[in-house]
Specification:
mainly beta, Neuraminidase, Immunoglobulin-like
């Protein structure tokens, strides 16, 4: 044709048609765009992205030097316009005779071709056509039609087909010396691993017999497992009696060979079938055939194009009109799309499309119907074709974002775009069973359905099936049927769930000021329960532990100079302990103190399959713009306000998920786009975030937009309106990068060193300006590590002669904020339990340059402590003052820690981590109850030596439990089979959060439903349910909460998503009252005394505002 592009006056050319834009371009042109002065002919070959096109041409003006007057192979770059000759030697010398039949790798780097030239590689003396591969990046040309030992073929080879990655080349050859034992005297199909060096024959029967007739036309699946070819051989499969060419597929993994040029009823073709092309996953094979018995109604007596589905066994004719009319004239030379949906072919027929009046052979594309896209997700997934998903599952049973055992999931199915409206029914079985009938609108793409796009009144819906994946391997089958019940597509998937660790957060109450009566004002630790809602949805685990550990206290006040020096925290009593801090300095100190408590009381307790962290709850009204703070990346302690307003929206649950993300080792994005949705730059110059904005993306930059899914709410999370969890944008969701980062930590790690019972020093402090500011030294009998550890810095315990008795290596951690203002980065800090060494005289801290930066000189007499209140046998409730005395012959100042035990000393909780006063006001109404078995312990340090005393037993009144259903909201509506993810909180105020059998769920229709904090259900009966949660504490006391939900049978688009439950209201800034009235939870009152200098450095960011 000369009218496809303007200025075409030369004859045969190669064209590319963009079916999306409708543009046709000529590619058989020079780099300057000049048309060839001789013809260019098919077959052409195109790279996966359509950028590179390989073709052969006899033109002499397409490359700078083309003087051989023979057909050469060229590659045209459609992006740059450059055309290069590739049928050249490694030295760049053009072939000395004909080259043609190119095949190009998916990325366009490698081109395989046939050539009769003898000068492309050294030693080419066989005087027959060979197969070559040219590496366009390295400029190297290699001969592929050789034996495993490198011997050249002793006869002709042809029709190369290169693998997607360019490593393998399939071709036919009449040579008898490419593999041992080739005695059939006819053409065979060979596969050459030209990088690995192996050559193998693949035109074999399932038993390994070589074909007794000639074979040709190879085509490979992307992974090279399946190779299709045509053959005259009659011995490749049983029952081959037609004495004509057939199309076969050889499975290199199993060794099986099957014939695909058969009818759906497996009747062999009554005429020849040739020129196969196979889909990327090896499922679909298109081929040309003269047979008239492969489909019903084939009466045209010409060659047609057929597609055989190797999974369902169905054979369909592709060379028909949209209405199904068979072509009047011959069709052939098919090319099938990656997913098997589209088949391009050449045809002389004039009745396949309207207006075909040219009387010439044309190229047509047949759409065989929508191919399903299938996605398994629990929060976020990387969307793939079914083929790509199959490849991943064959590797390790997991999609790109693995499925976690026992965490509710959804199987989402998206039919592809259709040319005319029709209905399809999606059926699933295996892990979940069900069906959905969907109206397919031509305006809806698979991506539209993934997004549930209903703009403009079009209902682009997905078929979603909810389930709870078990531990280990499981299967799912997905089918699509047409309106008549015929199976259009069928897929079988085998997946393997990952078992991840429990993610546990101990709630810590953080107190920031005192009222007029000297009672501390504290954050509500019970708020942490409902604030884990987003974390539960976006973290890759089915288990979330909870509990209440300690309470830390440090006074905060409005910033004065904000200069980041030592004046930001104040030691009013001049005893080496800070009494209060300015706002920005306060957060790092709080995070540091919470972290110290973690390592002292929890860090070395063996908890296989569990990951525990301490999380502080802070009142919402304290000064400054910081909303949350993490002790390090990764770290073990964080804190945030119980209410965090960002851009007018409550984000307290987002901040909890964000700060927990830091604890799990995930960094900020260091991006503040899109500006309208981001309240600050999430600064981090060490980030691994690869994208220019905070949208949910996957893959290499600029990244592919991914759609998240809120399984509990059955709602899509669109990437343009939900932003990366580790950003400072609103609202937030999890990206694949962050989800996988979480899973790296929660995926069961190798066994960690077990804590050993020993007497330890707690050596802690911060590093600033080349020196370490060390906290007072405390001695504890607890669990810790006795080994040297690893890290950039070290602590050395030395004797009087300077000999090193013990070394502990460590790497300081740096804390990070969530803020609307200046970014606050805490000073490098450390806290290590170091085994006590009997003859030690000093403890020395050494930095990464082996410079001493701090020292504690040991010696003197340990202080003696006596508790004056409580005296024993009392029943204590409400605010009481615990008091003690200390005597010490060589020290006048001391630092104290106060502990409480409800079980006679079996376990201890911290009431204060560090204070200088010899008394502590404690609200016993907030402590776990204990009938006659409660104790107080006071530990005193003079800076180097430790003394302690324990009170006689006393009583603290027991408390009643509480219950709260946090999800779904009252009045929620569900369809039968949809996930109803019941979530609740139960609190034993004497122990902590309840779980397991202490949390019982029931329904007014279905009776007992199950137990646990979370209970995902997909089998509730239709009707109106009164759902009740019953929480039972250790003393058999009970509390209940109830909601009403409906399960209603209705069409796919009619049931609204469940209402979001009303969140627990944020803790208001209280009117000063004694203690933390009514909270219980084992919250422990005390004073956080900070013995550090400056809080660190601050990063100024644009766009800061107050809230």
């Amino acid at each position: 044709a000369s009218n496809l592009v303007a200025g075409d006056t030369n004859g045969w050319d190669i064209f590319v048609r963009d079916r999306q834009t409708g543009e046709t371009t000529r590619v058989s042109v020079s780099s300057a765009g000049i048309q060839g002065n001789q013809g260019s002919n098919f077959p052409g070959a195109i790279s996966a992205d359509g950028r590179f096109v390989a073709f052969h041409s006899t033109a002499t003006n397409l490359a700078a030097v083309d003087t051989n007057d023979r057909s050469d192979v060229f590659v045209h770059d459609r992006q740059t316009g450059e055309t290069t000759m590739v049928s050249v030697s490694t030295a760049g010398v053009q072939g000395n005779t004909t080259s043609n039949s190119p095949s190009i790798s998916a990325d366009g780097r490698f081109v395989a071709f046939y050539s009769f030239a003898t000068n492309l590689v050294a030693g080419d003396t066989n005087m027959v056509g060979d197969i070559f591969v040219h590496d366009r990046q390295a400029g190297e040309t290699t001969r592929a039609s050789v034996s495993s030992g490198g011997a050249q073929a002793n006869d002709s080879s042809g029709e190369p087909s290169i693998s997607a990655d360019g490593r393998f080349v399939a071709f036919w050859s009449q040579a008898t010396n490419l593999v041992p034992g080739d005695t059939n005297g006819t053409a065979d199909i060979f596969l050459r691993d030209w990088q690995g060096g192996a050559t193998n024959i693949v035109s074999l029967s399932s038993s390994g017999a070589q074909g007794n007739g000639g074979s040709g036309g190879p085509s490979m699946s992307t992974d090279t497992r399946f190779i299709a070819f045509h053959s005259y051989a009659s011995n490749l499969v049983a029952g081959d009696t037609n004495n004509v060419q057939d199309v076969f597929v050889h499975d290199r993994q199993t060794g099986a060979t099957s014939r695909v040029s058969v009818s759906t009823a497996v009747v062999q073709g009554n005429q020849a079938s040739v020129n196969p092309t196979i889909s990327a996953d090896g499922r679909f094979v298109a081929f040309g055939s003269y047979a008239s018995n492969l489909v019903a109604g084939d009466t045209n007596n010409v060659q047609d194009v057929f597609v055989h589905d190797r999974q369902t066994g169905e054979t369909t004719r592709a060379s028909v009109s949209t209405a199904g009319a068979q072509g009047f004239n011959a069709s052939g030379f098919p090319a099938i799309s990656v997913d098997g949906r589209f088949v391009a072919f050449q045809s002389d027929s004039f009745n396949l499309v309207a207006g075909d009046t040219n009387g010439k052979s044309d190229i047509f594309v047949r759409d065989l119907g929508p191919r399903l896209t299938v996605e398994f997700t629990q929060a976020i997934q990387v969307l793939q074709t079914v083929y790509a998903l199959d490849v991943d599952l064959a590797d390790d049973g997991q999609p790109p974002v693995p499925i976690v055992a026992k965490k509710p999931a959804v199987l989402r199915v998206y039919p592809g775009q259709v040319s005319q409206a029709t209905n399809v029914t999606v059926e699933v079985s295996g892990i979940v069973s069900g069906s959905e009938t969907m109206a397919l609108d031509p305006a809806c793409t698979a991506e539209d359905r993934r997004r549930r796009n209903t703009a403009g009144g079009v209902q682009c819906l997905s078929a979603d099936f909810y389930f709870v994946p078990p531990v280990g391997q499981w299967t799912a089958t997905v089918k699509a049927r047409d309106a008549q019940g015929n199976v259009l597509e069928s897929y079988d998937f085998t997946l393997e769930s990952k078992k991840s660790d429990l993610l546990g957060l101990f709630a810590v109450s953080v107190c920031d000021s005192k009222d007029g009566s000297g009672n501390w004002q504290c954050g509500d630790p019970s708020a942490l329960g409902p604030l884990k809602s987003l974390l539960k949805k976006t973290a890759p685990t089915d288990e979330f532990g909870g509990g209440v550990s300690h309470q830390v206290k440090l006074q905060v006040f409005d910033d004065l100079n904000l200069d980041g020096d030592s004046s930001d925290c104040y030691d009013l009593s001049l005893d080496g302990v800070f009494d209060l801090c300015e706002a920005d300095a306060w957060w790092p100190q709080v995070a540091l103190r919470i972290g110290d408590l973690y390592w002292l009381w929890t860090g070395f307790i063996p908890t296989p399959g569990q990951q525990w962290y301490y999380y502080g709850m802070v009142r919402p009204g304290i000064p400054g713009g910081t909303g949350g703070y993490a002790s390090g990346i990764p770290g073990r302690a964080a804190a945030s306000r119980t209410s965090v307003i960002r851009q007018g929206v409550e984000t307290n649950d987002q901040v909890v998920a964000h700060e927990t993300g830091h604890l799990l080792g995930v960094r900020h994005t260091n991006k503040d786009q899109p500006a309208a949705s981001c309240y600050n730059l999430a600064w981090d110059d060490a980030t691994d975030w690869a994208y220019a904005d905070n949208l949910l993306r996957s893959g290499a930059a600029p990244g592919v937009l991914e759609v998240g899914f809120d399984v509990a709410n059955r709602a899509v999370m669109l990437p343009e309106s939900k932003f990366e969890l580790m950003s400072y944008c609103v609202p937030r969701w999890v990206s694949p990068r962050t989800y996988l980062g979480f899973l790296d930590v929660l995926d069961p790690p190798p066994p960690q060193p077990q804590g050993q019972p020993w007497t330890y020093w707690q050596v802690a402090g911060t590093i600033s300006g080349g020196s370490a500011s060390l906290q007072p030294l405390f001695t504890f009998d607890t669990l810790g590590l006795t080994g040297a550890g690893t890290g950039t810095h070290r602590i050395e315990v030395r004797d009087g002669g300077g000999a090193v008795l013990f070394t502990r290596f460590f790497t300081p951690t740096i804390s990070h904020t969530e803020t609307i203002g200046a970014e606050v980065e805490g000073l490098p800090s450390f806290s290590e339990l170091v085994p006590v060494q009997g003859s030690a005289t000093s403890i020395v801290v050494i930095d990464n340059a082996s410079t001493q930066i701090g020292q504690i000189v040991l010696g003197g007499t340990a202080p003696s402590v006596g508790i004056t209140f409580p005296t024993g046998d009392e029943t204590l409730n409400g605010p009481q003052t615990v008091a003690w005395t200390v005597s010490d012959p060589d020290s006048a100042s001391h630092t104290y820690q106060v502990l409480y035990s409800p079980d006679g000393g079996a376990t201890w909780q911290s009431l204060t981590s560090s204070q200088a006063q010899a008394s502590l006001k404690v609200d016993f109404s907030t402590l776990p109850g204990s009938p006659g078995n409660a104790r107080i312990r006071v530990i005193a340090s003079d800076g180097t030596n430790t003394g302690a005393a324990t009170s006689t037993p006393f009583s603290v009144p027991k408390k009643l439990p509480s219950a709260q259903i946090t999800f779904p909201g009252d009045g929620s509506v569900f369809r039968p089979g949809e996930l109803v993810w019941l979530q609740g909180l139960g609190t034993d105020w004497d122990v902590g959060f309840l779980s397991g059998g202490s949390m019982q769920w029931g329904s007014s229709l279905d009776g007992a439903l199950g137990t646990g904090e979370d209970l995902p259900l997909t089998n509730l009966s239709e009707g109106t349910h009164s759902i009740t949660l019953t929480a039972t504490d250790a003393d058999a006391n009970q509390a209940t909460d109830s909601i009403t939900i409906q399960v209603v049978a209705s069409p796919l688009s009619e049931v609204p998503p469940p209402p979001t439950p009303t969140p627990m209201p944020p803790t208001p800034t209280p009117t000063p009252v004694p203690g933390v009235s009514g909270l219980g939870l084992g919250v422990l009152a005390g004073l956080l005394a900070v013995s550090l200098w400056a809080y660190g450095r601050r990063r100024q960011q644009r766009g800061a505002s107050s809230s």
